[in-house]
Amino acid sequence: MSAGTDTADTTVQSATARRDLAGAPFLEAAHGRRPSRLPVWFMRQAGRSLPEYRALRRDNAMLEACLTPDLTCEITLQPVRRHGVDAAILFSDIVVPLHLAGIGVEIVPGTGPVIEHPVRTAADVEALPEPSPEQSDRVAEAIALLLPELGDTPLIGFAGAPFTLASYLIEGGPSRNHERTKALMRSEPDVWHALMGRLAAITGTFLHRQVAAGVDAVQLFDSWAGALSERDYREFVLPHSTAVLSSLAGTGLPRIHFGVGTAELYGAMAEAGADVIGVDWRTPLDVAAARAGGALPVQGNLDPAVLFAGQEAVDAEVVRIAAEGARCPGHVFNLGHGVLPQTDPDVVTRTVETVHAQPVG
Ligand code: CP3
């Protein structure tokens, strides 16, 4: 199945179930309209920076926490309650749909996803299981629990982009240089494209299930795409991310496309079908917006490490970033990557207050 098929039903179903969040600052900014205040949420806002998260996780493995609806719901709500952010992000992980499809994967604390049988040959690709929407029933249940609890706070669904998932599957785990991944794309392009097609189907199916269950926006995480040149991105990745993102265009929900170290790729990532470009801390927001074609809102881009530099330094960076964002067609404040586990949660809360005090562009 391609990511673009079987989407009509989910779109209709979601349209009737969806909450009316007219005026929610996050959605206004993501649609390029003027919000009532500068909206902010943080990648990895749920997680080890929060003592209430660490308490819940003591007795539950990561994948269990992602697949036990009341736990998933509670963990997703924790940062919303504590920080007053303008959006929740579903607590999950990019490898959850791989696990649900039947691929052996473990999330090892301090390391990340580890794949039981790495995928490296045509036969390995052929043996990959087909995804189905029912595999994500527990994720849909968590979303159903969340929507009434969230009131008028939007919920962001997400998935890993085909390239970032392919890197984990081929390398067998986290990789600094992605050498096996890059070797496969060049030495066996047919196998590469077949794998990327299968991953686009897994990602597309997972995102459409979240949309049908009622999420208000989606973010595609291509965290490791910055390892590629623009030429290679266009040849080996763009068609597959386009398959995923274009299949979601009909939902009318904002599609955020994010990567790390992707300064050279913003134009291509916009072409893949994004409504909002996620920007890491390396590129000023207005520069990123121009590279993305000049018409798209941006999301970002405080360096997560700045949260360790003291509130004065944080506030100065927030002011600078808000001013750069005000020159863009829309701005959702965020970090340039996820909240680091040792971050002081009180600094995060204070940062939300500083963001909300900034003028809107
Ligand atoms: O609040 C949120 O932002 C939602 C939570 C979220 C998680 N993973 C929870 C998680 C999101 C959006 C992800 C996506 C994800 N997972 C990405 C893309 C975003 C990015 O960071 O670039 C990637 C590359 C992964 C793969 C992955 N999963 C890594 C690198 C790790 C960290 C390993 C470690 O222990 O340091 C994980 C595990 C993971 N996913 C944790 C959390 C909260 C830590 C697990 C724990 O708490 O024990």
Could you give a quick summary of the protein structure above?
Helix content is 47%, strand content 11%. The chain has 361 residues and is of the alpha/beta class. The longest helix is centred in the middle third of the chain and has 25 residues, at 189-213.
Describe this structure in words.
This protein is of the alpha/beta class. The chain has a single domain, classed as TIM Barrel (Alpha-Beta Barrel). Strands 1-4-5-6-7-8-9 form a 7-stranded parallel beta sheet. Helix 16 packs parallel to helix 17. The longest helix is centred in the middle third of the chain and has 25 residues. The chain is globular, with a radius of gyration of 19 Å. The protein starts with 7 loop residues before the first helix and ends in a 5-residue tail after the last helix. The N terminus is likely disordered. The chain binds coproporphyrinogen III. Coproporphyrinogen III binds next to strand 3.
